[in-house]
Amino acid sequence: MGFLHGKRALIVGIASQRSIAWGIANAMHREGAQLAFTYQNDRLKDRVDEAANAFGSNIVLPCDVAEDAQIDSLFRELGSHWDGFDILVHSVGFAPREALQGEFLDNLTRENFGIAHDISSYSLAALAKAARPLMAGRGGAILTLTYLGAERVLSNYNVMGLAKASLEANVRYLAVNLGPEGTRVNAISAGPIKTLAAAGISNFRKMLDHVDEHAPLRRSVTIDEVGNVGAFLCSDLASGITGEITYVDAGYNILG
Ligand code: 0WD
């Protein structure tokens, strides 16, 4: 029996089979969790339907996290399938493409700053708040994805680094707020992986090559490696861990 047997998990942020959320869903499914999925818009619906099929789920619901009404209706709908659930995976991030190239100030605008923070950080707290009635008191867990650019200045990451720093603080505030009702909140800081979101970052290939050459393990990580740690962090095996950022990056973050 898998270590997530009997758990119900909502996966937010699958855009393709290369998505980190796909790797997390795969590991959670393997460990016995029942899954539900959201899709951002009609363009991505087929991909998410494909994921639901692959993981034996028939719960696929729309949710653009930029829209309050869609967040509300997501949990109303989910509540008609499940009377409660245990795991919320937030694998969502976005900044306008032009902000992810050049120097930090080159393409910094109030609008780009707002969008990056809204979609990449605020959405975690918004989902956690809306999910609360269905998650409270079950010993559940919330997981999000962050990146080293939150702590260090990395080329081209720019305003997304600020948004990820906000996301990491968000994890800590949520952990304190939701801890008393038994919900844990953690993040994985993943090494670079070639996904649709990563394709928006200028010179991403160079970053990946650098990690392959210099990380202690002399390689980058896979979505399955991130998925395994995600499944662990959201399981009862990790019942003593909350408010933490766990690195799954082949050791790259320890380098000076
Ligand atoms: O190297 C990487 N790929 C890393 C990614 C390293 C470390 C962290 N991360 C983070 C990302 O910042 C993000 O938070 O992992 C998370 C997942 O990213 P991913 O798996 O790399 O990217 P992808 O497969 O593109 O999924 C992200 C998805 C979006 O995809 P697109 O490509 O369409 O932007 O986030 C979703 C969307 O499906 N998303 C939204 N979902 C709901 N509402 C929204 C939105 N407004 N915007 C983006």
From TrEMBL:
CDD domains: ENR_SDR (cd05372). Its EC number is 1.3.1.9. Gene3D superfamilies: Enoyl acyl carrier protein reductase, NAD(P)-binding Rossmann-like Domain. Pathway: Lipid metabolism; fatty acid biosynthesis. InterPro entries: Enoyl-ACP_Rdtase_NADH, NAD(P)-bd_dom_sf, SDR_fam. Keywords: Fatty acid biosynthesis, Fatty acid metabolism, Lipid biosynthesis, Lipid metabolism, NAD, Oxidoreductase. The keyword Zinc does not apply. It catalyses: a 2,3-saturated acyl-[ACP] + NAD(+) = a (2E)-enoyl-[ACP] + NADH + H(+). The keyword NAD applies. PANTHER family: ENOYL-[ACYL-CARRIER-PROTEIN] REDUCTASE, ENOYL-[ACYL-CARRIER-PROTEIN] REDUCTASE [NADH], CHLOROPLASTIC. Belongs to the short-chain dehydrogenases/reductases (SDR) family. FabI subfamily. This is Enoyl-[acyl-carrier-protein] reductase [NADH]. It comes from Dyella koreensis.
